[in-house]
Write a structure and sequence with these properties.
Radius of gyration: 23 Å
Number of strands: 7
Oligomer: single chain
CATH architecture of the largest domain: Orthogonal Bundle
Number of domains: 2
Strand content: 5-15%
Strand order of the largest sheet: 5-7-6
Length: 398
């Protein structure tokens, strides 16, 4: 049955305060014996009511995505696209984490990706989000409940208290106090409703009868409304968008860093989610359209910066055309922190050959030595990490 609203309704549920929890008198007075939890709308048959201006912007943004995707294939002549695609995926993951106030600079993230970050650091959390985003795209051929559980498992792999890869079995809320849902800015549906709500969401995601960017924005907002996990919902929801874009063929190689666009005005993003829960779809579609344009513009600048860096490296190195060093340069674009073991594995070199290439790159100023918490030496390409940090600064600055 077709429905036209995404507005949540509310149900009153009992709440038992933990008598052992010490609270001030004013806080105790705020906690009653009941609370109001959201009941999400069913959207499997939703006919989104999007205003014409927003719908036009979404169509234009949708058309820009494959153009950007195609541009990247010609930006590094003589090399594979993979370096730029991997960089964009990393920047999207970092931006998505930053929306949740989990930040790490490019050097720290690069070290975390080769398992040389400080345990429990933000860099390790962002690296987990890179893995989660990668898994979402790898599983995009068949988007299903198992897909999103696998993404959550990758994201929260080192946080067992968040039940990685499993739907929540407790009440959660956003804002307010950790003691009770009273005073929260949003109280998610009771956990008994989550499984059915997610089945309804998958039915919506499987549809092919609406503009893609509208569908992505609604699916993301609905997942945020359901809040199916105890933690990581925002990052999983943004990963879902990329899986949907890939599944629909809008992107085949590159990850459009939409989260970097959302970073420009996070308050409007959160306000759009609130409007969606009130039944107005247009604001969240508008934010995704605007974020797509902003992300592509920023992504083009980043890609151009990396191509310029690569060209500078090529001009500063003299070696025969078949030398292994030429195969290592693209590796540094997508993985700016390396060890000899990584070069051996990724490029297929012996240890002496890998060490010799690293020595030449260090002499050319391409690599600098980085410290790690293990005995073997790591090396970083500072020009690449600086370009990634500049991307992040542009995203924040708008």
């Amino acid at each position: 049955m077709d429905v036209s609203t995404t507005a949540v309704t509310w149900e009153s549920l009992p709440w038992e305060r933990d008598p052992a929890q010490p609270l001030s008198r004013s806080r105790r007075a705020q906690i009653s014996s009941t609370y109001e939890a959201a009941v999400p709308a069913t959207i499997a048959g939703l006919v989104p009511d999007v205003d014409p201006t927003t719908l036009s912007a979404a169509d234009d943004a949708r058309a820009e995505i494959p153009r950007f995707d195609a541009e990247l294939s010609a930006m590094l002549p003589g090399t594979e696209l993979a370096p730029l695609a991997a960089v964009l995926l990393r920047t999207e993951s970092a931006s998505s984490s930053q929306i949740e106030h989990v930040t790490a600079d490019a050097r720290a993230l690069a070290m975390a990706e080769i398992d040389l970050a400080r345990p429990g650091s933000n860099a390790e959390l962002v690296a987990a989000n890179v893995d989660a985003m990668t898994r979402a795209i790898d599983l995009a051929e068949q988007i299903s409940p198992a897909t999103i559980l696998a993404v959550h498992e990758a994201l929260m792999r080192d946080e067992p208290l968040t039940s990685p890869g499993r739907l929540r079995t407790e009440q959660v809320w956003v804002g307010g106090s950790g003691v009770s849902p009273h005073g929260a800015s949003y109280v998610a549906p009771h956990h008994s409703r989550v499984a059915a709500a997610m089945d309804d969401l998958w039915a919506f995601v499987a549809r092919t009868d609406m503009p893609l960017l509208v569908q992505c924005a609604v699916a993301h907002a609905q997942l945020e409304t359901i809040h199916p996990f105890t933690d990581g919902n925002g990052r999983v929801g943004r990963a879902l968008v990329h899986a949907m874009l890939q599944h629909a063929g809008a992107t085949t190689r590159a990850t459009v860093p939409v989260s970097a666009g959302l970073l420009r005005e996070t308050e409007r993003y959160f306000a759009a989610l609130t409007a969606y829960r009130g039944g107005d779809v247009s604001p969240i579609v508008s934010r995704f359209a605007e974020a797509t344009f902003a992300a592509i513009g920023n992504g083009r600048t980043l890609a151009a910066d990396l191509v310029e860096i690569h060209a500078g490296w090529v001009s500063s190195i003299s070696a025969r055309r078949t030398a292994a060093i030429w195969r290592v340069l693209p590796l540094l674009l997508r993985q700016p922190a390396i060890t000899s073991a990584i070069v051996q594995r990724e490029v297929g070199l012996s240890q002496p050959a890998a060490d010799a290439v690293i020595a030449r790159l260090r002499e050319a100023g391409v690599l600098t030595k980085a410290s790690g918490r293990r005995r073997y030496v790591a090396w970083v390409a500072p020009q690449v990490t600086s370009a990634l940090d500049a991307f992040a600064e542009r995203a924040r600055r708008g």
